[in-house]
Amino acid sequence: MTAVLPRAGRDADVLFDPSSVAVVGASDDESKYGNWIAVQALRMLGRRPVHLVNRRGGTVLGRPAARSLAELAEPVELVVVAVPAAGFEAAVDDALAAGARAVVGITAGFAELGAEGRALQQRVTERVRSAGAVLLGPNCLGVADSTTGLTLASNPLPSGTVSLLSQSGNMALELSGFLTGHGLGFARFASLGNQADVGVADLIRSCTRHAGTELIAVYCEDFGDGREFTDAAAQARRAGKPVVLLTVGGSAASVRGAASHTGSLTSDSDVIDAACRAAGVYRVATPRELADLAATLRQQGPVEVRRVAVLADGGGHASVAADVTEAAGLAVPEFSARLSAALRRELPPSAGVRNPIDLAGAGEQDITSFTRVLEVTLAEPDTDAVLMTGYFGGYREYGERLGAGELATAHRIADLVRGQGKPVVVHTMRADSPAARALAERGVPVFGAVEQAARALALLGSAPAPEAPAAVPAPAEPVTDDGYWSSRALFAAAGVPFPDGARVTTAAEAVAAAERIGYPVVLKAEGLLHKSDAGGVALGLSTADELRAALADMHARLRAPGYTVEAMADLRDTVELIAGVRRDPRFGPVVMVGLGGVFTEVLADVAFALAPVDQAGAEQLLRSLRAAALLTGARGRPPVDVPAAARVVATISALAAAHPEIAELEINPLLAAPGRVTALDARIVLADD
């Protein structure tokens, strides 16, 4: 169910700093959530009133328990409900009657179970909203805030500056271990559950306002209103609080029934990637990557990284680190002669100074060489970041004097990194050593595997600043006919150029149209997705007899409802493109561009963005294709009119945004040539009612 933003008088912030709390369903049974939450809630005694409620009364965890909230002598601002599903509705009613401004629904058994549970969930949600309160969950695992001392999650969590919004409680536990390894912890934790009321976008906005949050981590399987998520995440990024997303496939079923190339080529992951680019969100693949990136962002903040200097104290580590860094999508370029000469002055003759840098034993002779080499390397304008790899952290094993020097060098490295404004990541064989811990404690990310370090640098530059969204057009008169000729007319009226053509149903009409247009002509059958594959296209028809014969053959085989006669397009110096839009159930219209024609699905060279896009955004998409060199002129071919192609992409993206009744639309192929573009096919698919 799509979450609804809190209305006037409702504030999601109350979830994190209530004046008083109650746990309904508190229990002594250590196998129940009501026990786990109550144990954590009692840690807040002295910070705020905590009430335990159990329908049998008596004592729970050695403290008096009320049989209902009505027995309490004071209002309760936040109520955690951990009772069986059959009693959830009544428990929420009691909470609202007791003055609750927030309800945390631990109870499961609602929309996740089907229509009956969904109806109950909706009924409870509407009641909460009508009362001006907010509901987190249901089917969630609690909430915590280390800055306010709120402990209403099922497990204790380390304190820090990362706020986690998660649909998985276990994900929080795993992530807490990785964060702790980097000296990080949680400012806030909120379990999303079913997002019946408060959703991920609402919580991102709350964390953006929260002074104790520096980074917002999200594990989400259902984004609710995807555009709200994108907008909230973009606002957080602009406020200096990056959003890091870990997600799974989610709604792949939404593209299963795709009726066009655009639909069949678009995965749920593509849509999420497009949303992340629009919002400046970092997307990671694992909880460990999330923690690694969080540590790296803490050091430097969002910054573009392309060119990396590798600094090692051995040839093997140098070579492996260089390979791993380039495999992560970064460059390890050869240093300039000037930089190599400067490094040579700091190192013995056997050292490697061209990138990667191999200290070749200089560390054992003079541990401070790490600092000097790092300083020279970071000062180089063509160096975006440094990856240090190898034995640093282990030199203390050679003696107390060298260990003391290593620790002092670690502190000098941390000071140097803080002043240079460029990211430095460290892989060490001894990540638990005093020197390694000193680096980590002072903000230099330390990793036990070199691939972690390289991946963290690659992720650091993976989320450019949020894009300025294109203006959404006003809703247009709904389209009711999705036939080829109607689709072609819709695109043409918006300004998409097509060859001269006419719709026909008989041979006589076809010949008349061809004589007006001028031979040679193309004949196309309507009602087919892959016209060429089905024999529904006849090219280069030069006479009336050829046209009649082609029409008779098609009609005998295909029985198409109609046919189109079009002028033959000029195919000289052209590149075939595809441009389309699919409406995603969560994120709305998503535009796709790629290499088109009959090889669209074979090559699958495509790029995506949330629609609408303006011309600049469309041109950026086209230039991001792997085969973009074909557009700009390759192997002696003249460059095509990329701005004109981008105008067509922007036009159809705006068209889709103005027509919510269209599920999919596309032009394939769109011929791009020097000085012109021409659309040769058009298709729209109307949404099911």
UniProtKB/TrEMBL annotation:
Protein name: Acetate--CoA ligase family protein
Pfam families membership: ATP-grasp_5 (PF13549), CoA_binding_2 (PF13380), Succ_CoA_lig (PF13607)
Keyword entries, A-Z: ATP-binding, Ligase, Nucleotide-binding
Domain annotation ATP-grasp: ranges: 488-686
Organism of provenance: Amycolatopsis thermalba
Keyword presence, Nucleotide-binding: yes
InterPro entries on file: ATP-grasp (IPR011761), ATP_grasp_subdomain_1 (IPR013815), CoA-bd (IPR003781), NAD(P)-bd_dom_sf (IPR036291), Succ_CoA_lig_flav_dom (IPR032875), Succinyl-CoA_synth-like (IPR016102)
Keyword Ligase: yes
Cross-referenced SMART domains: CoA_binding (SM00881)
One MF term in the entry's GO annotations: ligase activity
Signal sequence region: none
